[in-house]
Design goal:
Two copies of one chain form a homodimer. With 680 residues, chain A is of the alpha/beta class. Chain A is 62% helix and 6% strand.
């Protein structure tokens, strides 16, 4: 095992066989942290975004934080109730994509898929950025390079996810529960001190007056409605991640749907409690935030910049645990880690969705193939790269990223709820059992409320955020939609073009004419000649192109020495090029014998290092590419393994083939679908 | 003809057939501008570099410009005399490389080649940079982006050279002769006005005092020797390019050697005259330059910066043609153009040398192949890219670039002269005719003087410039030397490894077993099956890998529908991967039947656009790569041309194959080296 293998083993873990897939199914206590960290962790930034949006109206704005929080909680309740219906109706894990495709047609499905793909990327970018921003309360040295730190975290998450789902679950349970305990404990302790002991706890920013933007003073009329809508839209970031469970149903233990629905209910309850607790504490301690882009500011300019920009979580932990620093560090550490793990939700959901889309022909087929590990390595990689791009461009600025966020989730929420109402209506048509009908009618009512609620939120989000950045997300979705439709159209066209007809299996060419390309007389060429002769084609020719007269005479002389009963033909090349005359010669054979097939044998050097490739096979490559365009011509590479290829071969073997020989797993077996030709 | 073709035709011109090569031979009047522009154009920067180096000693330094110029002229004379012997002795155009290889062995040859390759790149970089610097006298807007302008000029030169040698000659003759007339005319007119009419012509900088670097005041002893050596070394830039003629002998008309020697003598005479004239005028007009890096400066700080940095040529033309602005513009324009054309010398020499080195196995073989045009397109491209890199990094600063220059030329001069003395000594051993012996003795004496002269200059150049930048050139040569030796060693190793043995032509495998990789049941797969069956191999199997159970059942069902009398084998894939199990299956066949050969048939989709490649053939590519490492396995691609490939095919045809069908040129002919299998 060399160093590379060791690192790969360390990062990616051992391979898992297909039969081991059962082992990766998740119990509820593990599924909750894996799928819920996104929704839970958003309490670390959703209150911040509400408060700093409201700060644009100055002191008058902060009074509305409670109302906004309540509205978000109500929407959360509606969405959770709605999705509990979905996980029962569609346990296959297609989630919103499947619901939309089945009930509203493939175009709706692709719209949902585009929206979800964009939002998965944003989930990673926002969560990791917020994690870095929160971490600054403990580690001030992060300031200045937030984008690069966030990128590093994303790459680390990518590596962990390439190890596979199950290890992710175990690995992520402890910190998620730590965050739960930390935040709920802090809330309880804070409320006890304020309400029980009657202490006057004041946030570091409590004593400052906030001056808003002139646009929102006085805070009445349309300006007020617009700003409250923006604050609400930003707060709705707390809702993202709920759909992750509906996409992840197959990863649950049996009974899958029931367990998923229960987990969803738990998630909803916990999220609303934490969110409410944080906003309540912020109100009680007089906590204030200002817009980092400078549209609002503190009246007292003496506020240290690092305090002014500290997150809600940082200020609360500092205030409530003022006499208990261990508590402060515990809460901030747990917040940081849960935010990084929240990104993991997307690392679970994105590759699964990508694979489903690839299966349906909307993405390149290679995304459908699993890699070494059971996780979908390709999808994980693509997601990580896109998110790294975003955090670097936005330098991990949560407030800027949040403007692009949420749109996608509510697009898919709304379409999916619409699909669910169709689903129940369709099933009600055929269902006769009164108990089932009653359950369906109830479900349809819940999904109809869901449709109305999420639809209204979508309109509010689009209207209030569009010019602030949501248009970029909409644009990305539109591009993805067009790309996915085009890929599908391409695969469909190819499938039509290549569909087997009645005669295809009987179109046997009358003869195969072998042509061997000779550029030197050496072992590789002789091997090509011998292989071609062993194949016993109808005719066989060896052909060389005369680029340089002296060289050609030498080749001919050496050829004659070999004493083969096969003449070497020489083609003249007025432009001293090999490709053109050779391809034209083959074309000549084809047009003289249109019912025959030509098989061109090309000796190829197999080398061990990439730079050796530059020194060999260039002509072979060009000739092959040109011949590929010709009907009725096949190209046979006859590889000659140079000694240096041994190293590259060993490396390739170690990386993949070796695993197939491990005792007990993956011995080559001829399957039992149809049997005549079974080996051994 | 589409737009791309039109542009290509415009830039690269029509193809030339092998038989047209004679037409590209050069008469002396064309050969002079083509090969001599480098040496001639250096009068536009060599005097500058002498003066600005001397300026480090303040006013005392300028007094030595005459002595330095004289020394350079003497070396020029020696080198020209020496190379006249070389063009007679080695008319094949290998030049210094051939002389060194034949007389001193391949390692000496590779040293010379490394030196020349580096210096060709520097010739382009220095000449074009100087051209841009001189052009600033007319076009001040160039200032600031000199590097980018120089890069643009190099790219334009590249495009012109890709058109071929002959057009270059005609194209470049007019401006070269224009430069000759301009400079000689300016010199004559200036001398006439000063000496004949007794006018007091003063350069714009004549009235300024120059303050040197403290290191060189007082200007005596070691400091003086060191500085004069540096000034002389920079002045020796005037000598580069002389070897271009000896490398270019085959491009001359018959009698080649005689014409080349005559051209060389003309070149030497003209260059010395121009060089001497410029330095004389600079002295007479009191012209002064300062070091652009700021080690020397004018005492009068009121000098406008643009005058202070104006080149010698610019200042002289301004002074002498003070009443005749047309003369000023003519000289500056001609200077600019000749400097750009000087780079053309390298564009003539570099690709020829690269091709010779590729022929001898020191560079990748593909550099030996001629492109569409008779010029060596690959070499031209590599040279242009390297020079563009240099001018961009150095921002076309001639004084910085000149520190790297000259070393390479004198390395090859010295080794080549050493080789020439060996050459004559060897021939004198067998020569008995007294007249021939006398001529050879005279030649040997000249080359011995040449060896001594160039050897001394090489030592001076190395010692005086090493730390100022020459070490970079030496490093580049060392790297090139190692790379070229390694490439040669690689080719030799491969040649030994692949040399045909007595038995190679008789190692016929006992049977060929065909294996068809089935991933879908469609036309491409059916074509592969039909082609494989038509080939009549000893056995034939169709194999699919069961990645997904449902998919596999569908494939098997469709296969059975086809009614082929060929069973489809199914290989289980515990890791849901195609490559590993398939490769292992083939390995099993091989180890069960070690004397047989396996031929794997893979259907391949031929598409029209690069992005379609991402959607197809990925598995085929990976399988092929893995199988290539296996002994006794050949891989046959059976291409299936999708409708979209038509466009790409047409484009490829237009770009190359079409030319082979032009009446009269390039019809496919079966040559007359050996004949039994003649077609038609």
């Amino acid at each position: 095992m060399n160093a590379t293998d060791f690192v790969k083993r360390l990062l990616v873990g051992r391979k898992l066989a297909s039969t081991q897939l059962g082992e990766t199914l998740l119990p509820k206590r593990i599924a909750l942290p894996v799928f819920a960290s996104d929704a839970l962790s958003s309490v670390a930034y959703a209150p911040d975004e509400i408060l700093l949006t409201l700060s644009l109206a100055g002191m008058a704005g902060f009074a509305f934080s409670w109302e906004i929080a309540l509205a978000v909680a109500v929407v959360m309740l509606i969405v959770v109730m709605s999705y509990r219906q979905t996980v029962h109706a569609y346990p296959s894990g297609g989630g919103d994509y499947e619901v939309a495709t089945v009930n509203l047609g493939p175009n709706a499905g692709v719209v949902v898929a585009s929206a979800l793909l964009v939002d998965y990327v944003l989930t990673v970018a926002v969560s990791v950025s917020s994690g870095v921003q929160n971490a600054k309360a403990m580690m001030p040295f992060l300031a200045g390079n937030e984008g690069l730190w966030a990128a590093a975290v994303i790459l680390a998450l990518m590596a962990m996810n390439l190890r596979g789902v199950r290890e992710s679950g175990s690995f992520f349970a402890v910190p998620t529960y730590g965050f739960l305990i930390g935040v709920l404990g802090m809330t309880a302790w804070g409320l006890f001190r304020i309400l029980g002991l009657g202490e006057n706890l004041q946030a570091p920013t409590a004593s400052y007056e906030v001056v808003g933007s002139p646009a929102y003073e006085p805070f009445i009329g349309l300006a007020m409605v617009v700003l409250l809508a923006r604050a609400f839209s930003s707060g709705c970031a707390a809702l993202t991640g709920v759909e992750a469970i509906s996409n992840g149903v197959p990863a649950f233990r049996e009974p899958k749907s029931h367990n998923a629905a229960t987990t969803l209910a738990m998630l909803g309850g916990i999220a609303i409690t934490m969110f409410g607790g944080i906003v309540l504490l912020a109100n009680l301690t007089g906590l204030k935030l200002i817009d980092p882009d400078g549209h609002s500011h503190f009246l007292d300019t003496g506020v240290p910049v690092d305090v002014a920009h500290e997150t809600v979580m940082g200020q609360l932990a500092r205030t409530i645990f003022d006499t208990f620093p261990v508590g402060f560090f515990f809460v901030i550490t747990a917040t940081m880690i849960i935010l990084f793990l929240a990104a993991n939700t997307a690392f679970n959901g994105f590759p699964v969705l990508g694979s489903i889309l690839a299966r349906d022909g909307f993405l390149p087929r290679m995304l459908h193939t699993r890699g070494d590990r059971l996780a979908y390595s390709n999808g994980i990689f693509v997601l990580a790269m896109a998110a790294v791009g975003l955090v670097v461009v936005f330098n991990a600025n949560v407030t800027a990223l949040i403007q692009l966020y949420v749109v996608g989730v509510f697009v898919s929420f709304t379409i999916s709820q619409f699909g669910m109402t169709r689903h129940w209506t369709r099933h009600l048509k055929t269902e006769t059992d009164p108990r089932n009908r009653a359950r369906m009618l109830r479900s349809r009512a819940i999904n109809t409320v869901g449709l109305a609620g999420t639809g209204i939120v979508l309109i509010i989000v689009l209207a209030s955020k569009f010019v602030y950045g949501a248009y970029q997300a909409v644009l990305a979705m539109a591009v993805l939609f067009v790309v996915m439709r085009s890929i599908k159209a391409h695969y469909q066209k190819v499938a039509r073009e290549t569909a087997v007809g009645a005669m295809d299996a009987r179109l046997l060419p009358s003869r195969v004419r072998a042509v061997i390309l000779v550029q030197e007389v050496n072992k590789p060429t002789m091997r090509a000649v011998n292989f071609a002769r062993a194949t016993r084609t109808s005719s066989i020719e060896a052909v060389t192109v005369a680029v340089d007269e002296a060289e050609t005479r030498e080749i001919v002389a050496k050829w004659d020495e070999q004493g083969l009963d096969l003449a070497l033909k020489v083609i003249s090349s007025p432009y001293r090029e090999v490709t053109g005359p050779f391809v034209n010669y083959v074309r000549g054979i084809r047009s003289d014998n249109p019912r025959d097939v030509v098989c061109v044998y090309i000796p190829e050097y197999i080398v061990g290092h990439w730079w050796e490739q530059l020194l060999h096979n260039q002509t072979a490559l060009i000739v092959r590419t040109r011949l590929n365009f010709m009907q009725g011509v096949m190209v046979t590479s006859v590889p000659y393994q140079l000694a240096s290829s041994k190293y590259a071969f060993d490396r390739a073997e170690r990386n993949s083939a070796a695993a197939w020989r491990r005792p007990g797993t993956g011995q080559v077996r001829v399957g039992d679908f149809n049997e005549p030709g079974r080996r051994e």
